[in-house]
Each structure stands twice: as C-alpha cells, then as structure tokens.
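Dear Dr. L.,

I hope this message finds you well. Following up on our conversation about the binding site, I have prepared a predicted three-dimensional model of the protein together with zinc ion. For your records, I am including the exact sequence and ligand specification that went into the calculation, followed by the structure tokens. Please feel free to forward this to your student if that is useful.
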Amino acid sequence: MHVNFYAGGTLDRTAPLRRDDAHFQALLAEPVTRVVAVWRDRNLIRTDPEPAAIWLTEPAAVAEAVSAARTVALLGRGDGCPYVAVDLSELDDPTVLAGIDRAEDFIGLRDVSAAMNREEAALLAYAKGLMFWHGRHLFCGACGAPTHVEASGHVRRCTNPDCAVQHFPRTDPAVIMLVVQGDRCLLGRNRRFPFKLYSALAGFVEPGESLEEAVIREVLEEAGVHVGGVRYHSSQPWPFPGSIMLGFHAEGISEEIVIEDDELLDAQWFTRDQLSRIDGQDMRLPRSDAIARQLVDAWLRGDVAF
Ligand SMILES: [Zn+2]
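The resulting structure of the complex is given below.
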C-alpha cells in the first residue's frame, strides 16, 4: 500500500466516543490535552529551526482557547494525549490568547509541510480540513437556520426543530491522473501555478459519475486526449481546502493534445528522459509531498504498465 503525505498518521480517532459529551468535556480538562489551533485556514507552526506544530498544552491556555473558539472538535488520541482542534477565526488578533505569541506563527500548511514530520503534518491537515468544513456549514443547507455542533465536533445539527437535519463533515473527491503512452506521459501546466510547474491532470468527480469515468472525462476535457485503461494507485487527503485526491494512472489512446479548458496554459507529452532532466531547469515537477509526484515517480520506476 502506498501511503502519501498527509496520510498515515497513527492518531486513534476515537470515533465511538464522539457522541459522549461528558467524555469530551472531561477530556478538555485533562492536563495532557494538546490543542491544535486553526486561524483562518492557517495552522499554528513554528519554523525555527525547522517547521513543527505548536500545541497549546498549558491548562490555562487550553481553557482560554476552548472558550474563545468558534468550534471545538476532538481529533483523537495519540501518545496518550487527547488532541483537540479549535477554530479561532473569529478573533481578529489570536495573540490575545495565552500560548500564542505571534500572529505570523499561523502559517499555510502547504507552505511548510514538505519539511515537517509526517505525523504532525497529517494531524494539522486533519484539523485544518475539519475546521474548514465547520466554517462553511454554520447555517443549514436545507432550511437556512443556524447549525450547532454535536458529537465532539463531528456533526452540525440544524437548530430549527422542524428541520433538525444533521450535517456531517464532507470531503470532496477529486481524481488526479498521470496519462501514459509507451515511453511518454502527459503533464499540464495550470494557469494558477506560480511558475513553470508541470503536473498530472486533475479534476472533481461529478454526481452520478464513477471515478474511472471522471478520469476519462477530465483528460478529454482538459487536454483532448482519449483514455483507455484506468488503474488506481493511491489516495491523499488534500485539505486545501476540502478534498481527497484519488490517484490513477491512465492509458492514453490518442496523441493529439487540444487545450480547450481555461484551467490549463499548456500540456505536453514528456519522455522518461526529458523528465529525468526537468527538475532544476526552468520547468519543475510537483514536490514529493504531492501525490502527483508519486504518480510520476511510480511510472519512472516502471511500476505502471498498460
Ligand atoms: Zn435546517
């Protein structure tokens, strides 16, 4: 099994205990509880000497953060310590809280995660993704009434008694695929990429569509290339902001590239030889913490055959 970055954490999510509110309240008062702070989609991280999570651990700081938070959620238990996420986004200045020294310590996880301990990165990604979902579901999608938090932060329920719908944290499935054909693979340069980064094509799965169908449709839409076989590789939590990337290799059965999609600036077939020389030039491949790079590396190693 291939385990991608942001996955493979050893945290026990303690899901059976989430409905036990007394358990959650007791756990918040445990002296070893670690609070994972999220502020406006950023995580609390120190960068010196290397990127690492900052937990709030002092009981007074924990209590203060929990009472100031818009949302509090139980992440689980690891190394004997409960981990609790708090969303502090409603504070204009999070440094009013004990244990938070500088607003600049709230950092975009993607900016620093490649140099982080994988276990910590997985935990921060979990907290970030869960809090993003909460922030987008403050009101009921069925009737528009406010929602409130239940199940230790893993459910939001509509406060309208005639509705009372439960909303569960969602993750949007996206397919990402390396299209290969003999000794070549297809990479595209997204309009949003800040430099000449060439990566695997990707897109969201639509309702009423299988993953394989999404792969075939996206490649045709984005690059005009027809796909035959589709083979699953691995998946990666991608809370940027709320996805899971489902990685595939796909067999290209046509050659001509036609870009009609607004998302791509360019797409090209690259040989193995070209790819081995691409990094460090003016073009770049994705970083190794991204599943796109793992798809490329697996193909370069010869792990993929159609
Ligand atoms: Zn409702």
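In brief: Residues 140, 142-143, 145, 158, 160, 163, 165 surround zinc ion (CB under 6 Å).

With kind regards,
A. P.
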